[in-house]
Design a protein that fits this description.
By secondary structure, this protein is an alpha+beta fold. The chain is built from 4 helices and 4 strands, in the order βααββαβα.
Length: about 100
C-alpha cells in the first residue's frame, strides 16, 4: 500500500469551529475507511501546520480522492507527500 503524509492548515471556517475538530476527524476516518483508505495516525500540531495525517491506500487515486473530499468540506487545506519506508526507498534508488 502506498503511504502518504498530509500536512493540514485550518481555514478560517475550521479555526472558528476548532472545538469540533476531533469530531470531524473521526467522521473523516470513517469515510476514509469506507473508501478503502487507512488512517494510520492523526495529530494536531503547533507551529506552521495545524495537523498531520498519515494514511495508506491501495493506490494514489484512492488517497487523493479522500484528501480532495476532505478539502471540499472547507475546514482544512492539505499539502500531501508520498512517503516510503527504508526498504521501499532502497528499491527505488536501486541499492
Amino acid at each position: 500500500m502506498a503511504r502518504y503524509i498530509s500536512l493540514l492548515k485550518f481555514t478560517e471556517q475550521g479555526a472558528s469551529a476548532i472545538k469540533k475538530s476531533t469530531a470531524r476527524a473521526r467522521e473523516f476516518n470513517s469515510a476514509a475507511a469506507k473508501a478503502g483508505v487507512k488512517i494510520e495516525a492523526q495529530y494536531w500540531t503547533v507551529g506552521r501546520f495545524d495537523g498531520v495525517l498519515i494514511l495508506s491506500a491501495a493506490n494514489e487515486q484512492a488517497a487523493l480522492r479522500v484528501l480532495a473530499e476532505l478539502g471540499t468540506l472547507g475546514n482544512v487545506r492539505t499539502q500531501s507527500l508520498q512517503a516510503f519506508t527504508d526498504q521501499e526507498f532502497d528499491a527505488i534508488v536501486g541499492k
